[in-house]
Specification:
287 residues, mainly alpha, globular
Length: 287
């Protein structure tokens, strides 16, 4: 009887410890999400503090960039240029690529903050560096999505563009695209550290690479010699071109999402390791 009582008390003690650990873990997760949410909202607020009017110039430039591009593709395909897709698919691809460019190709402020001396200050904040950059970047997306992207989606018929979705697998593909985009972005930030804050050089190299290999502007289906078939399975090809190709029906969702999952699993651990190693050589000026 004595041993049964002891075992019972020990079991109750273990159960209470487990329940306390689970409760503590839930509180930590809750606090983490609260921190991410507040950081994102602060970032969105910083972008709109000067008023919405100051954002309109940037949105107008995007429209000015989009209209000639739509006219170019329309004229080329009407003249019989073989593009590997229909005119409707081409216009939809181009329109969405311009409307959601910030989300399709992730660009956090890591490199510029490193140069300006702001990145080191993040070590004094409760969130991790990468967590803070993710929350801040998403927060800066919100005003553009609300004030520009979604209204432009509603105005798509005025531009002669149909946004009918061909496959709803484009939505999980977009989520994987964003996740992988942050991993790639952190690697470019590490490259900036390795090059001793040569942020403009890294920015130029990055733009030159992503314009071609990510498929945001020129769909892979248009590339000659079957290059697009291979590029869409590379890490950068799993960014903008992947969800756009699935959305417009230019590619099967299965293989593309499989490779997106694969690159996320492979590149995120690599990105974290490289980031931890690169922090040791971080030099930041400014204030």
């Amino acid at each position: 009887m004595f041993f049964e009582t002891g075992n019972s008390k020990g079991h109750e003690h273990e159960t209470s410890e487990y329940a306390y650990a689970v409760k503590g873990g839930e509180q930590e997760v809750t606090e983490l999400f609260k921190g991410l949410y507040k950081t994102a909202m602060m970032s969105a607020g910083d972008l709109t503090n000067g008023g919405i009017v100051y954002l309109l110039g940037n949105y107008l430039l995007r429209v000015v960039y989009l209209i000639p591009l739509l006219l170019l593709w329309r004229n080329l395909m009407v003249d019989g240029v073989e593009a590997g897709m229909s005119l409707s698919q081409m216009l939809t691809y181009t329109y969405l690529g311009a409307m959601f460019s910030d989300v399709l190709i992730v660009r956090s402020p890591a490199s510029s903050w490193l140069y300006e001396g702001l990145l080191i200050s993040l070590y004094q904040r409760p969130l991790g560096i990468l967590q803070h950059l993710v929350a801040h970047t998403i927060g800066r997306w919100l005003p553009t999505l609300v004030l520009f992207s979604f209204p432009m989606v509603l105005l798509a018929p005025l531009f002669g563009v149909s946004l009918q979705i061909r496959s709803f697998w484009a939505l999980p593909s977009l989520a994987l695209c964003v996740s992988l985009g942050f991993a790639v972005d952190s690697m470019f930030a590490c490259l900036t550290i390795r090059l001793h804050n040569a942020s403009w050089l890294v920015y130029t190299i990055r733009n030159a690479i992503t314009v071609f290999f990510a498929g945001q502007v020129i769909p892979f289906a248009m590339l000659p010699w079957g290059l697009g078939h291979w590029l869409q399975y590379l890490p950068l090809g799993s960014l903008a071109g992947a969800p756009l190709a699935i959305y417009t029906g230019l590619a099967e969702a299965g293989p593309i999402i499989t490779f997106q999952l694969l690159w996320n699993v492979l590149l995120w651990p690599v990105a974290i390791i490289i980031w931890r190693k690169s922090q040791e050589g971080m030099v930041s000026f400014g204030g």
